[in-house]
Amino acid sequence: MENNGKKTRIVKNIKVDTKKCVGCKACEIACSAFHATPRYSSINTGRSRIMVVADEMLDIFVPIRAGDHTEAECNGRNSYIIDGKEYSECTFCPASCPSRDAFKDPDSGLPLKCDMCESDPPVEKPMCVDACTFGALTYEEREVEVTEPVTTVTDMDEGLKTLIKRYGLKKVMDTVVRVSKE
Amino acid sequence: MRYCETGFQLEVDLSKGSIDKVETDPRDTALYLGGHGYNAKILYDRVPPETDPWSPDNLLIFGNGLLNGTCVPGANRVSVNTIAPVNGFFGHSLMGGFFGAEMKQAGYDRIIIKGEAPDLVYLAIHNDKVEIRDATHLRGKGMLDTQRMIQEELGDKRAWVAAIGPAGEHRCITASIDCGNSSAARTPGPVMGAKKLKAIAIRGTKDVNLAHPKEMWEMCSRLRKELDANPNIGDWMATDEDDSFHHNNFAWGNARVRRKTFWSEGLEERWRNLKYDHMNRWTGCWNCPKACHNLIQWPNRRRFSYKCYGKDTYHMASFQELDFTYEILPVAMDLGFDSYSTPQTIAFGLELLDAGILTEADFPGMPADIRGRFYYLLQKMAFREGIGDVLANGVSGAAAIIGKGAEKFDHNTVKKFEQLPIKLGKLNPAYFLMIATGEDMAITQIEGSFPQDPIADPELREEFIKKWIAVPDKKFHDWFRQWVKRDELPDQAMVEITDWNECMHYLDDSLGFCGFVSSFRGQFGGTTGYHVWNMPDIITHGTGMEFDKDRLWECFQRNRTLIRALNNRRGLRRSMERPPEDHWAVRNEAYEQQLLTKYYDFKGWTFDAIPTKETLERLSLGWVAEDLIKRGVLTGDEPTALNDPRAKNEKE
Ligand code: SF4
Ligand code: SF4
Ligand code: SF4
């Protein structure tokens, strides 16, 4: 996108206000319906790309959207204490990961990822946001300037030379082939 | 493919240890819809009238409303039905929250529990994987620990666990079944205890299919926004801190004392602070744009959530203030007690002590202060110790055991069932009919569509009528126009108002709608979310079955009549249909009897309050007529009530 000669792109953001979430799952329902084939033909929160981590007894309500898939679970985990409430490990992590069954298609086991409800024609706002009448999810778009990559051919030359020096040409070649296949 | 429903029910026999996933007949859905209607059909078929409610042969059924687990906003109620130990009739309770939707996603429309386990067990359901697991390590555990421990055992924090506490395990009549922020109170808890079923944990990840996806989604999205914007639905008590209505009008203690000037601005301010200083947030139910549960953290207590009138019952039974409810409610709920009838039972016990029918010797070690006494009796009842073993039978049951005039103190029950503590002056005919004849046993489960009071100002009245699209027939507009005094409308109007009120609850309970967005909320403001004009389209688009208002109304009549017949078969007759004698100060026995006759006649029932053969046949319940005739409940020749010779005598 061009704007006054500057290159820009749209960043889509869903702002989550955990204090406003009531745990109603309307967001999960909407997401699963939108991604059903044919569209809206079924409801299954197990297929949703948004999940409300809820524990009423701890007053914890955190809607998270599915991010990238990871093959291996993290070695080190994060748990947070915010305002005196202890959030268990992985509460805020969006990954579909071997450590839990979140964000995996219940039938195929394949990872699910939020696609921001990209569709043709486009929806006015993401389905989960539209369904949340409590204001826990709000959608915003902002235009950001795209900074050109600073890496130059010379940089790459230098980088490669370093790698070849450290690991030998064959190992670097093998790695490039393997990684490009993945 | 089946739509909105899964087409399967889970049948578990705890005596045999058997688990069966059984395909159901879609024709039954078309007739009874789901929820309590469908459950009543199963109870009629499988639990003969001789069966003792405590017997392993009694069933405990968790039945999804037809629309639960779909995108229909506010449809999440599970009807929990059984033969109730308190009176031997159809026991009906509703559970909101998330249990029903999860059950549907696990692939079941309902769960039917039969038999009695050799020792305490729980049921673990994850889609097709169903296990009966040992629960002896959970014996005596409260609701919260039970839910958490089961989730940990199953390694699944997203599993919903419906459990009983010690009160249910000990078959207390006022025990409830709790799941998250919701509970099934009134009748099923003790049956679950008798079956030695501590809990049902459920998790599901299957599709719930919709027949006309696009139309259904559009309709539901629109409804969701309408419900959200509608100020007349949801539970006002979640946000309106003016609770003068209950405190000034309902009776305190053992439904005894009215304190007409109790409420004040100062009190309201104090209580508002008390609430919001301790409240974390509101929480909701599956797919509902209202959030009615107040999540509270009180010092030295675990977090708990309550809704509606549950906020008042403990302090009103004990003549205390809101802080006492906040302090005792988490304890009582964790023990697994219903907050509606339990405080009444305790107040009843203490009244017997004051009256000298029970003595200090019956309450060894009981503290002198009223708050201490309530805690003492809760514990005694939950574990059935000493006098608690007697009171655990509920007010009517305990009165019968105690004798010595205790029966006189059982003054607020109908068919042995605790009622709201309401004591008024002049008889209200529609309310008389609802309380006397309602199969759902509690007025809040019967009233709700027709306003409680007339509107005097003609302009405001017309404004109300203009928005009042929920009426099934224009005649209700006409009656509303001519209505001036609360108790004065033609009997025909009183009968039909009762009928419509009932209808909406029956539809809600079979479809899964919460009364707060539907049946209970029509009476306030006249713009409730669901009514006989929009429900048919939802059913049509959701299930693919063509529905219209008449077909829907017939489903109500069928379910109402079936449940009546089920109770008739268990001995229910006209003579039992009596509101508490002191419900109104001024009574007129002859008039009340005439009203009953007119109501029965309108319903197509006999003078004895039993559906006639013709009525049953008209509603495709010919098989019920055959059974009633075979059992001698009907001869088959009875006329409807007004054509009975006894009705003629009444007039003279
Ligand atoms: S729809 Fe909104 S309030 Fe409901 S669970 Fe999702 S984020 Fe929370
Ligand atoms: S933005 Fe769309 S895809 Fe992503 S979680 Fe929300 S509804 Fe699902
Ligand atoms: S209106 Fe309130 S109680 Fe009813 S379903 Fe909605 S949140 Fe639950």
3D architecture notes:
The complex is a heterodimer of chains A (182) and B (652). By secondary structure, chain A is of the alpha+beta class. Chain A has 2 domains: 2-148, Alpha-Beta Plaits (2-Layer Sandwich), CATH 3.30.70; 151-182, no CATH class. Chain A contains 4 helices and 8 strands; from the N terminus they run ββαβββββαβαα. Chain A has helices at residues 26-34, 127-131, 153-167, 169-181; strands at residues 2-3, 6-16, 42-43, 50-55, 60-65, 80-82, 85-87, 137-145. Chain A binds chain B through residues 19-26, 29-30, 33, 36, 38-47, 55-59, 61, 106, 130-131, 133-134, and chain B through 69-71, 73, 98, 101, 105, 144, 148, 157, 180-181, 204-210, 213-214, 216-217, 221, 224-225, 228, 280-289, 291, 295, 297, 302-303, 305. Strand 3 of chain A pairs antiparallel with strand 13 of chain B, so a sheet runs across the interface. One iron/sulfur cluster (SF4) binds at residues 74, 76, 96, 234-235, 284-285, 288, 290-292, 514, 516-517 of chain B. Residues 30-31, 34, 49-50, 65, 114-117, 126-128 of chain A line the site of one iron/sulfur cluster.
